[in-house]
Amino acid sequence: MSLIRQDDLIQSVADALQYISYYHPKDFIQAVTQAWENEESPAAKDALAQILINSRMCAEGRRPICQDTGIVTVLVKVGMNVRWDASLSLEEMINEGVRRAYQHPDNVLRASVLADPAGKRQNTRDNTPAVIHTQLVPGDTVDVVVAAKGGGSEAKSKFVMLNPSDSIVDWVLKTVPTMGAGWCPPGILGIGIGGTAEKAMLLAKEACMESIDIQELKARGPRNAAEELRLELYEKVNQLGIGAQGLGGLTTVLDVKVLDYPTHAANKPVAMIPNCAATRHAHFVLDGSGVAALPAPSLDDWPQVSRSGGEARRVNLDTVTAEDVRSWKPGESLLVSGTMLTGRDAAHKRIQDMLARGEELPVDFRGKFIYYVGPVDPVRDEVVGPAGPTTATRMDKFTDMMLERTGLLGMIGKAERGPGAIEAIKKHQAVYLMAVGGAAYLVSKAIRKSRVVAFEDLGMEAIHEFVVEDMPVTVAVDAQGESVHQTGPRIWRERIGKIPVTVEPA
Description:
This protein is α/β, with parallel strands linked by helices. It folds into 3 domains: 1-146 and 299-309, no CATH class; 151-277, no CATH class; 313-489, fumarase, CATH 3.20.130. The protein contains 15 helices and 19 strands. The strands form 5 sheets. A 5-stranded mixed β-barrel has the order 14-15-16-17-19. Strands 6-2-7-12 form a 4-stranded mixed sheet. Strands 8-11-9-10 form a 4-stranded mixed sheet. The termini are far apart.
């Protein structure tokens, strides 16, 4: 019979969340390295290189892999013979661990959790509460899996109630292209099959926490239907040609994990949850001997990678003109320097409301670029913490307004733009540039100055002014409305030649 002390669980949760904020799992590094070595698409290969360089930098600097440090999910199995030396409930202990982790002064993590989600949506300021799933099991230990799931990948979660005779493979191949690149591929697809609707979703989330072992499975061959399904989906999803960051290429998923559970004879519940390029999860067991040990990985686990994206055009954002912007080509690599403004969902909504009331905006967007980002707070001598892009499609409904009413010249974000935003970009002869999701710390090193210039009460969603130097971006939608997120995957599907080109993103 084990005696588990309250602070041992609290500190173990806090340590695990800090650990996964800056250390990728070794299996993930190995899988991305293999994808980078095999990739033939120059744009995708450069994106993979940025992810690997960023990952090593984070391991060395102990700073977050992604500016979106996630909503915390905890899977707990409590042994029935465990005794507790605790005054707090299990959930209270876990949430105190989350609080300690996200407020750690040496590595502040971004608080993204909002209370009153259908109302005021106020930030809880410490990223609590976690989403906790608890099982009571035989034994005298406490088994814990801790994960931090980014909003961009969580937003692409899918569920369907298929008929028993329907094909899971067909549904996945139809659905993955509709997810776009906001989940930051390449990553892992977690598939949950069976049970009820909520059980299938939990199975899919649990599947995302498993180790990458698809190459070992390919080598030994499948032993059951779930493993056959994994292999088929791994091959066919990669044949879609979506590629790293949706730019078109050979690797869209690093693994497909499948968990199942008995279900009703009339049903076939299927859930799919992607895990992004900031894959973050850790497993530890408490047996009464103290705080869980989480050994630091060796830096030898990371490859020495250099970018090979070809010659990039240098752009001065302080002098760039509308004529210059119209000359940029889809897929072109740029290194941008100068002054840019930032803004996400909340800032755009406030701008919209102010313009509707005829109020003057607190900042001048004329001739400027806006970067869709919510940075991590800086520590020590940092100008800004990790500051990677957020999913651009969330700003699509504001794009025409921003281009029409503010004189904005262009936008920088993550992943594709939808039809409405592309049409607005074309109409106003503007441009959309893409930065790599999953390279937040690398991007932050290009930011030389940072200050809040408006809406300070919005926290990480406030409008900042950044001065950047050689920030790497790709022309994703040009002034003529051509999108590399449409052309890239189509070209690579044609080259791979195994999936009909009629499969298009929604």
